Structures are given as C-alpha cells and as structure tokens.
Amino acid sequence: MPQIKTKPAGQLDAGRRKKKRDHNAISPFWNVIFNVIIGLFAFSCVFPFIFVIIISFTDEQTLALEGFSLFPSKFSTDAYEYIFKTGSELFTSFGVTLLVTVIGTLLSLFLVTTYAYALSRRSFEFRGFFSFLAFFTMLFSGGMVPSYIVMTQFLHLQNTLWALILPLSMSAFFIIVMRTFFQTTIPDEIIESAKIDGAGEYLTFARIVLPISLPGIATIGLFSSLGYWNDWFNALMYYNSPKVTPPLQYLLMQIEKNMDFLTKNAQNIGSTVDLTASLPTETIRMAMVVLATLPIVMAYPFFQRYFVQGLTVGSVKG
C-alpha cells in the first residue's frame, strides 16, 4: 500500500507564515492603488461643481476674453447681484421650496413606509394584489393630461402648494425598495414577540419597525427630498397666477428665460441695449446652479451614514 508523504508541522507553519508575509507585502500596494482610483473618481464627481462655483464668481468680460479657467484674472459678484435684485421674491420662493420639500418628504415617507410594511407582512391577505398594483404603475401611468384634469378639475388644487406635493408623494419604486428592506431586515420573530407582549400592528410598526429601519428610511427620504427640491415641472403645469409665489427652481428658470429674451432681442429694444450688453449671462447660469444645488448638497452629509447603510443592507447575509 503506497504511503502518503506529508510535510512536518514545522514546514507547514513556515509555509503558511511565508504566504501570509507575501500577502501582507502585496496588500498595501493594492490598497494604495485602489485608494488612488477611488480618490480620482470622487474628485471627478466633485470637480464640476467646484468649477461651476468658480465660474459663477468670474467677471463676465474676463470670461468672454479668457474663456473658462480655474484661476480667472478677475472675480466678480455681478451674477449674484443680478439674481438678488428680484428682492424678497427670491427668499419667498426659497421658503416655498423648503416648505414643499419638508412637507412632501414627510408625507412621502409616511405613505411609502406604511404601504411597504403591509406588503412585507406574510399575514396580509391581499399583498399580492397590492404588490402588482404598485409594480404596474411603474410600467404604465395615466399620462400628463389625465393627471392635469384630476388635479385641476376634480381636486381643484391649481395654484396651491398641494399641487406641488401630491404628484410626488407616492413612488412605486420607493415602495418596492422599502418592502425589500423590511423583508430582509426585520425578522418575523421580532414581530411575533411584540404580538405576544400585546402590541398591535400600529404600535409594533411605530415602536419596533421604524427605529430598526432608519437606514432605509433615510435613503428614501434623501431621494424624495431631491425630487421635491429639484421639481419645477409641476409648478409649470399648475401655477398660472402671478399672485402665487413659485418655487425656487421655477423662479430661477423664469429669470433665465427673461434674461435670454432681453439678450436675443436687444437690437429691437433701443432703450435697453446698454443694459442687455452688460448682463452677465454665462455667470448667471452658473450662479443659478449654485443657488439651486448648494442647500441640498449641504444637507447630504447628515444623511450619508444612513444612506450608505441603506444601500448596503441585505447585500451580505450570514
């Protein structure tokens, strides 16, 4: 019978230690490479916004002569001064957008989490039907005209804040994401133990499910806030009265449209030729991007910790 040759235990341990040393020798090198690649990718994401801020503070004449530059020879605040000449309307529009974003996000979180929690419960008899109903709306929608008729003719919400809030309050994609989050994060044993202790569905949802689900809720809340903050289309559809203050995004779009009209028709408007010639057109566009983006960018770090957890939860089990 042939004998199986085995290495002494000392040689095996030495081989393992050598492999471990080789692994430790290679690992820092690849860590540096990966960190450099990720750093370059992160810089490529942040750099455009930094460049836009620099251009917004560049003098318009310098921009026309030198072009876009990271280090312009002359800085100016003319773009921001022109925008802020709208007076209190800009700050009022900012307040309208902030109010719509806060109320809309809270309403969206309430509707999405309650709907998704019901779909995640196996004891819910009609969860298959309502899951199909949510998924169906992702593929097919009523369209713009029926939505406009419902909002204006049936609900009579034209020129009101609810016309900006309700269209974005329910998202089938958010519902499916939260349903999956509840199914993969909330064990059935926790729900059953709460019922044994006498807690009902509402108390279980409020006192047990929601605190555990903060990463998923923060992720959906961030996406919902971005949607409300950047929304201008609903104001374009449902706001047609000059007495109603539009949201910030729609006001900035109106300012840009008026500025483009003046610059394109400067030759036909004799008294405003000098005015339109001095308008900082390019820098105003960049300033509008900064004003529309900076507040939500400043709020993002507060959601980052929960946002990362919400994206990675369920990816690794065991």
Automatic annotation (TrEMBL):
One of its GO terms (biological process) is transmembrane transport. It is found in: Cell membrane. InterPro entries: MetI-like, MetI-like_sf. Belongs to the binding-protein-dependent transport system permease family. This is Sugar ABC transporter permease. Residues 94-300 form the ABC transmembrane type-1 domain. The keyword Metal-binding does not apply. It is a multi-pass membrane protein. Keywords: Cell membrane, Membrane, Transmembrane, Transmembrane helix, Transport. The chain crosses the membrane at residues 29-57, 94-117, 129-149, 161-182, 202-229, 284-303. Signal peptide: none annotated. The lineage of its organism: Bacteria, Bacillati, Bacillota, Bacilli, Bacillales. PANTHER family: ABC TRANSPORTER PERMEASE PROTEIN MG189-RELATED-RELATED (PTHR43744), POLYGALACTURONAN_RHAMNOGALACTURONAN TRANSPORT SYSTEM PERMEASE PROTEIN YTCP (PTHR43744:SF9). GO terms for cellular component: plasma membrane. CDD domains: TM_PBP2.
